[in-house]
Amino acid sequence: MISVQNISKMYGGSMIFEKVTFEINEYDKVGIVGRNGSGKTTLLKLLTGEESLDEGAIYMKKGSIVGYLQQEGNFNNNSTVFDALMKSFHKLQAIANQMKLLETEMAVSKNIEVLLKQYGELQEEFSRDGGYEMESRVQAVADGLKITDLLRILFTS
Length: 157
Description:
Elements: E1 2-11, E2 14-24, H1 40-48, E3 55-60, H2 81-86, H3 90-108, H4 112-128, H5 134-144
Antiparallel strand pairs: 1-2, 1-3
Helix pairs in contact: 3-4
């Protein structure tokens, strides 16, 4: 499902990792272990596309999505379990937001052909990457973790 080939990443002149290669197959269970500052979070950010590679390539099976929850949560007092789990779909949420903006723009624009083309491209990416299944995936994770109420408040004042 995921193939990482000879990837390298530097920060401020320091090599975080160099020429790393591995594969993750369907149904594999993977743990990432290492000292603080050894590149665990950087690796996850590379896999999600939040960070760019210095060298190498990452290949993923079409429709695959990699998400993670940060060790130190960035939640406000009104955050719910659902909000926390949805954070792993930040790329798809950004596409959905762009689509909503285009919908609003199309309602008042005279240049609708260009907007429809942009909307169609976004919708295709959203669909291909599982955007219409986000909530069911969140529910599946919650079920797997035995969380029965996704709207339960995580943090209180």
